Amino acid sequence: MMNIIVGASGQVGSMVVENLLKDGAPVRGIVRSEEKRIALLDKGAEAFVADAHDREAMIRAFQDGRALFIITPESGQSNDILAETKAILDNYRFAIRRSSVQKIVGISSMGAQFSENSGNLLMSFMLEQNFTDSEVEQIFIRPAYYFSNWMMGYDEAIRTGVLPTFFPPDLPIPMVAPADVAALAAKLMPGGLGASKIYELEGPRQYSADEVAAAFAKISGKEVKARQIPREEWEQVISGMGFTADGTRNFIQMTELVASGQAGPQKQGTVWLQAETTLEDFLLQTLKPGK
């Protein structure tokens, strides 16, 4: 039976596909364009073009599936992020009921335990709660803050010597490499069915923005310092990134929760795991200095 990957061209989904194919497992990737479909076929996977908003397309894509990898697509361009998330999750649930899928592996997030006032993290709460009336095995991975999120500011940091951050520069927060998340997801998809679980995954230690800036400085040879964006500037900065009013509001709520130090692992009723990739290893793998 098929392992089906929603978001197979995404940061984590693409690596789940690669890991499964490397292990010889059958894979069908779901993507949103013909170009991405062809790229998947070239890797040796089945490929299906479908939009998560299209329920009938989801039904067709999930046929003959046994294990299903799902995400909640995050976009700052939505005018109602939570309503859009609910619609997508409803489509997943509807399509699963009309398929042979027996196991769900979903990418949630640390902080998914909060049911209100957590902004974008509510998407993960909704994901985990969406299948409570379903008999399929349900596995959710709650990753820590991705190392890769910092890469959006790398070039500017090297050019200006300043790494902007919404977090207090000396606040350690759990972080993890996306590749480690994908490796865990790929490991959990095959095999026999078991009990539903939530896995919380973070790297070998926590890092602060100051430590990220120091790592940037070390690998680039340039001086880099972290600087916190004042709270009164958050709305302007986030909307300037192209976020809608709703996207900005939810991003701010999420960021406030993380910055408060409350959005760490729950460690109650979950399986807590530490991955091996350090921030320094991630930067070396991503930037490949000297090549």
From TrEMBL:
It holds the Pfam family NmrA. Residues 5-258 form the NmrA-like domain. InterPro entries: Ergot_Alk_Oxidoreductase, NAD(P)-bd_dom_sf, NmrA-like. Gene3D superfamilies: NAD(P)-binding Rossmann-like Domain (3.40.50.720), UDP-galactose 4-epimerase, domain 1 (3.90.25.10). This is Nucleoside-diphosphate sugar epimerase.
